[in-house]
Amino acid sequence: MGERLSGHGIPGRRRAQPDDAGPGVVQDHAGLEALIASAMRRDTGDAGAERRAVAAFREARESGAHRTRTRRRDDWRPERQGTRRTVRAGLSVLAASLTLGGVAYAAIGGPYGAGADDPGGRPGTSSTERPGTASPAASPAASGAGVGAGVEDGGGTPEPPDSAQDSAQDIEARCRAYAQVKDPARAADAKAWQQLVAAAGGADEVDAYCARQTAQPSETPSAARGNSDRAASHLPTAGASLPPAATNAPTEAGTGIGAGNADGTPDPRPSGTGKRP
Amino acid sequence: MGQQGKPRRVQAYDGELGAAVARAQEGDEAAFTAAYRLVHPGLLGYLRGLVGDDAEDVASDAWLEIARDLGRFRGDGAGFRGWTATIARHRALDHLRRQRVRPRPTQLEADVLDLPGPHSTHDQALESLSTERALDLVRGLPRDQAEAVLLRVVVGLEGPAAARVLGKRPGAVRTAAYRGLKRLARELGTTGRRAGVTDEAPRTLGEST
User: Contact A9/B182, CB-based, under 8 Å?
Assistant: First the structure.
């Protein structure tokens, strides 16, 4: 113990644990440890504390609490080898599940639907091709789903007359801003979002509202508007800027929603897709 | 957990502790008392390091939960110490959160009369370390080092168990414990080795990381 090489402690045999491979970690401090241990374990507490603990034990015993099930955190059996690996594997599975769930959630068009089209142009990944994949598909799927949600909203409710003809450009600007805001949480804070919500009559209506607005004959027939425009194809006021691809939208209904309908089951919100022209 | 060449002193009682816990789970009150007496000192020392003067209050809370959830526990004596330390730690963190205080060194005066001068080079002179001084020094460590040292030295947990209590990787806990002990050794003027060595030796120890 007193001998050591070149300034490094020899890894102690006294603590021969397979996972404790490190330069002479603790055996150099064995005496110190004992000192600290004896110093800090001296206090045995008072008798009152013990009585209270035993009373709590009695009470729990009487009330049958001791027949409760073992949770993961209560399992300290030494046979649990590779706990760390188990935990990591479990976390990986959990992360994957949450991702898939997130895609599914986006597919059903959650509160914000995320019908945001990215003018920067994401690669035209189609959620039909990768219904089960993780985050890359989330946005296209979300876009498709958002559009789908928007379509249903537009189809389910009679289209209200455009009450903002005089500020159509304002609305378009806001819709554009909304489209650029990918994060619903941020969207909620953006003034543009709030104005849209007010104009559309609710957060759920924003997608449809923007779709209607951008479907108006406008100066921006960009690819980014593609989805919104296609969505609007189902609405009475079909915009002149609809790309031809819009007509393909309905045929991809069943599979266009991403993970949520990966098997193509018929769905009340059929027609959004993630495809871009 | 796991076998090692030199058992810690506290582990000598782990077999007894495991048996007591099992009987307590069957309703044996005397067994619960025995388990309490084996575990409480380490738990209290750990809590003193975390919350200082309020350690007894937090320990009370912890034992309420331990007693109530006793039926859920599965494991041996070492596992019981890890399980109870986890519960105690949660109660301590709740306590700190409620108080919105950060762990800070206690205001207890170092009892210098209990310590030989800083130039002592033999452990034999440091036969006893006062509780107050030990607590003062440990509480002065960075939080992660303090916890690692407390769990391994005062509660007597092995690396994996301490890591589980803290929710960290074993390597990180090992490093933190090593650094904490090194610092304590420096502050006490000794590395705690039994063999007579000079004060310079600690400074030649290589850095682990």
Answer: no
Which residues in chain B are contacts of A50 at CB distance < 8 A?
33, 36-37, 40
The pLDDT tens digits for A187-244 are 555 666 677 777 777 777 777 777 777 665 554 444 444 444 444 444 444 444 444 4
Judge if ipTM > 0.85: no
Q: How far apart are CA B91 and CA B51, in angstroms?
A: 10
Q: What sign for the dihedral angle of Cα B7, B13, B16, B19? A: negative
Q: What is the pTM of this model?
A: 0.50
B65 to A42, B62, B70, B81: CA distances (angstroms): 24, 5, 8, 14
**72-91 in A: which are within 8 Å (CB) of B?**
73-78, 83-84
Q: Over its length of 209 residues, how does chain B's per-residue pLDDT go in tens digits? A: 444 444 455 677 999 999 999 999 999 999 999 999 999 999 999 999 999 999 999 999 999 999 999 999 999 999 999 999 999 999 999 999 988 755 555 545 444 444 554 544 444 445 578 888 999 999 999 999 999 999 999 999 999 999 999 999 999 999 999 999 999 999 887 544 443 444 444 445 555 55
d(CA A149, CA A268): 9
For residue B119, what are the contacts with CB-CB under 8 A and spacing of at least 6? B189, B199
CB B102 within 8 A of CB B50: no
The answer to whether the Cβ–Cβ distance between A40 and B170 falls below 8 Å is no
Cβ distance of A78 and B2 shorter than 8 Å: yes
Nearest to B59 among A8, A39, A49 (CB): A49
Q: Identify all chain A residues contacting B69, using CB atoms and an 8 Å cutoff.
A: 60, 65, 68, 74
Using a CB-CB cut-off of 8 Å, the residues of chain B touching A24 are 205
Given a contact cutoff of 8 angstroms between Cβ atoms, the answer to whether A225 and A94 are in contact is: no
Contacts of A77 in chain B (CB under 8 A): 74-76, 79
- Residue B194's SS3 state is coil
**Token reading at A131:** 């219904």
CB–CB contact B4 A15 (8 Å): yes
Paired residues of A5 in beta bridges:
A8
Are residues B27 and A66, on separate chains, in Cβ contact within 8 Å? yes
Copy the structure tokens of residue A262: 């990966």
Q: Beta-strand (E) ranges in chain A?
A: 75-76
